[in-house]
């Protein structure tokens, strides 16, 4: 039914008369292009089109921001590199603080200082994980669902 309707529309669209609407300009231009290059209709029966669609890409590849934008944008690329350096430094600080606590003897450092070092190590680790999530969401892939927006 749809195919028959599209064939009849494509054959007789020029008999409808001129449309004064600005929004129809692209439709008329497409119809002219279709008439010039494809004989006025899409060749649905050819061997090129068998009726099935190609497989869709995975969402991660389809909505990939890194390869489609961040690599080519100098501002985003600079921010990406800076945030990755900050994330790495937070990892190093957390490991260094834990190493300092492990190396020092119990009598060399007070309990308050030891607890402070442990707190800073935990804060650095949590900060690096939050930063990692922020980097992935803003520079690599952010899933978007129109139903929840």
UniProtKB/TrEMBL annotation:
Gene Ontology cellular-component terms listed: cytoplasm; membrane
- GO MF terms on file? oxidoreductase activity
Q: Does the keyword Transferase apply?
A: no
Question: What InterPro entries does this protein's entry cite?
Answer: Cholesterol_7-desaturase
Q: What is this protein called?
A: Uncharacterized protein
Where does this one sit in the cell? Membrane
Q: What is the protein's major site of localization?
A: membrane
Q: Does the keyword Transmembrane apply?
A: yes
- Bilayer-crossing residues are 90-111, 117-136
Highest taxon of the source? Eukaryota
The UniProt keyword set, sorted, is: Membrane, Oxidoreductase, Transmembrane, Transmembrane helix
Q: Which organism is it from?
A: Deinandra increscens subsp. villosa
């Amino acid at each position: 039914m749809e195919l028959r309707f599209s064939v009849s529309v494509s054959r007789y669209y020029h008999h409808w008369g001129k449309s004064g609407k600005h929004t129809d300009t692209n439709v008329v231009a497409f119809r002219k292009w279709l008439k010039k290059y494809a004989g006025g209709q899409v060749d649905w029966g050819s061997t090129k089109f068998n009726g099935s669609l190609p497989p869709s890409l995975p969402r991660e590849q389809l909505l990939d921001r890194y390869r489609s934008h961040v690599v080519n944008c100098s501002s985003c690329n600079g921010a990406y590199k800076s945030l990755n350096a900050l994330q790495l430094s937070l990892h190093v600080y957390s490991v260094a603080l834990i190493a300092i606590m492990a190396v020092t003897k119990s009598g060399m450092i007070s309990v308050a200082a030891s607890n402070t070092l442990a707190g800073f190590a935990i804060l650095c680790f949590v900060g690096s994980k939050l930063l990692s999530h922020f980097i992935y969401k803003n520079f690599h892939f952010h899933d978007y669902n129109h139903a929840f927006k």
